[in-house]
Design goal:
With 186 residues, the protein is mainly α. It contains five helices and four strands; from the N terminus they run ααααβαβββ. β2 and β3 form a beta hairpin.
Length: 186
């Protein structure tokens, strides 16, 4: 019995060392510009840019396939930060993707909610909590205000409420992010 335990321990140690060596030797580096672009995007995962989320949009920007002006939740500030990072000209927000709006939060009227779970399925960040045939609620800290929960709701019990800026939710900009490039009128 002791021999079997010792043999399994030695094999586990050998395989662990082999896996550790392989992970260092065959490490695949990600594109650092994609990481920087993704960090500048608002991470709403709303799909308004015609991509499934912020990461695929960042990859497409890095490859030069799309412009930097397709993110309505990020708005002008994100476009300026991306232009500064990539050293390209600032462009106005693409109106086909939407318009820039103030930050909103989904609020469910629990009296009208029928518990259909369609909003839960539509939420890309799992900010809605509930079960079938039970009332649902929104986790305010998780909600990105993407509006994707509105269309599937059959009873229109979800309202988007503007989030007012207060000392509790306002924060200084990240000093490590590139500052937006100044736009000069032409």
């Amino acid at each position: 019995m002791l021999t079997a335990i010792l043999a399994i321990t030695v094999l586990a140690l050998i395989f662990g060392l082999l896996l550790g060596f392989a992970s260092l030797r065959f490490k695949v580096e990600g594109d650092p510009i994609v990481e920087q672009i993704d960090k500048l995007l608002p991470q709403t995962q709303c799909g308004q840019c015609s991509f499934a989320g912020c990461r695929p949009y960042a990859e497409s920007i890095a490859e030069g396939e799309v412009d930097i002006n397709r993110c309505p939740p990020g708005g002008e500030a994100t476009i300026q930060a991306l232009a500064n990072l990539l050293e390209v000209d600032v462009k106005p927000l693409d109106e086909k993707c939407g318009v820039e709006q103030t930050k909103t939060l989904a609020v469910i009227d629990e009296q009208r909610c029928i518990g259909c779970t369609l909003c839960i399925q539509a939420c890309p960040v799992d900010a809605i909590l509930g079960a079938a045939k039970q009332m649902h609620t929104v986790i305010a800290d998780e909600c990105t205000g993407c509006d994707l929960c509105l269309p599937p709701c059959p009873v229109d019990c979800i309202d988007m409420v503007e989030v007012p800026i207060s000392p509790n939710n306002w924060c200084w900009p990240d000093p490590n992010e590139p500052t937006p490039k100044q736009v000069t009128p032409t």
